[in-house]
């Protein structure tokens, strides 16, 4: 029998209820008292005995109403909590202050690969010995966020946070652990970083050489083999890598890119392989997940691969051969499932001959070679690219310039672009800032070789008797003077030299220069 007794507030009501139940020798399973309401649960009764008890309860002083209920309040709250905890994507484990498990949701059972939920009531140190973080919380009363935990029993690892549960007197009453599997962590990372979804349709071209290259890359995308992308700086190597990933069966998983020259060698190793807790001073508590692990199921793009050290070359070779990684300071092998796309503008073949790059690693990386042509070898793409870059830049700058003149296009087409598409983008953006009319003219197109000619008009012998600081000042003044003959305003001058408007004015004042004085 489960009933809710609505009553007026008075002393001795619980005692009177208990006397009636004692009279009929009925065992009370639970009783909860809230202001003006008493909840009662007893053992199962016959219909006849239940009616007798209800009749006597109605006669008690202060009783307003008695109703049958399905659940006691604590059971109802537990059921509500269970519904909530089983609709979220994180695993939840709750223990009392002694570490005995009092709740575990279905997601936790799935993530931890527990056969069933019979661990309720067991101590967490016995049932889940790898959940040491929650035990640490129970011992210290502190919370710990985003620690990676490895379960050797299941050969799996998770991201775990734990924090204490406190009662109304601020005393420790238990602990709760929130568990995420690594796939969820990867999805969160991908969502937060907002990686651009690049497809082959986003590669602007109309040349036959690029069309053939894209068709080949689309075919390679379906494979799991490593790809080595070769090409000059600024030719779009990462663009192709992202397009290959998004055309592959791995498209729904993570794409990670790292520039091997942008990170010091020792730091690059820890970024790629991760490390265990306490490996070195300043290491994150709980250790750190490496990019090979984080990218598992997806694609890892290693740009400028030709610049990595011989030590890292040996470690990378082992990863490619065994598909397993070992963290710095660790003793366990972690299986990974990641596709490697690497890129370089180095001559790896010559580096192999010179002993600067491992031959065995070269063959592992160069399973599928992809050569990106420089912009000077596909000049029919320049006008299309220039228009695309012009439109996207104009929209960001919010200028009144409407188009590029035919003369400007001819000047752009006749240039060799040592910096390829990246340099073309720089030239277009500079021209938009320099141009004063509604159209970009040929004079607004400032090419790298023009800037070289205006910056080195004096022989170095002129500076041989000066210290370095004075020589640099004289060179800077000379560059400004030469550039001021071509550009008639500080805004255009700044755009040409890559300086802000205020920096140009400050430097002109420093060297006592003005446009009137430097007119030809």
Q: What does this 3D model show about the protein?
A:
The protein is of the alpha/beta class and 520 residues long. The protein contains 21 helices and 18 strands. The protein has a 5-stranded antiparallel β-sheet with strand order 6-5-9-8-7. Helix 12 crosses helix 14, helix 15 packs across helix 17 and helix 20 crosses helix 21. The radius of gyration is 36 Å and the shape is elongated.
Keywords, separated by commas or semicolons:
alpha/beta; five-stranded antiparallel β-sheet; 21 helices; 41% helix; 18% strand; elongated
Q: What's the short story on this structure?
A:
The chain has 520 residues and is an alpha/beta fold. The protein is 41% helix and 18% strand. The protein has a five-stranded antiparallel beta sheet. Strands 11-12-15-10-16 form a five-stranded parallel beta sheet. It has a four-stranded antiparallel beta sheet with strand order 2-3-1-4, with helices on one face.
Topology:
Blueprint: E1 2-7, H1 13-23, E2 28-34, E3 37-42, H2 47-58, E4 63-68, H3 73-85, E5 91-96, E6 101-104, H4 106-111, H5 124-127, H6 132-140, E7 144-151, E8 156-166, E9 172-181, H7 182-193, H8 208-221, E10 227-230, H9 237-246, E11 255-259, H10 265-273, H11 291-294, E12 299-303, H12 310-322, E13 324-325, E14 334-335, E15 339-344, H13 348-353, H14 359-365, E16 368-371, H15 382-397, E17 403-404, H16 406-413, H17 420-434, E18 439-440, H18 448-455, H19 468-484, H20 490-497, H21 501-510
Parallel strand pairs: 10-15, 10-16, 11-12, 12-15, 17-18
Antiparallel strand pairs: 1-3, 1-4, 2-3, 5-6, 5-9, 7-8, 8-9, 13-14
Helix pairs in contact: 8-9, 12-14, 15-17, 17-20, 20-21
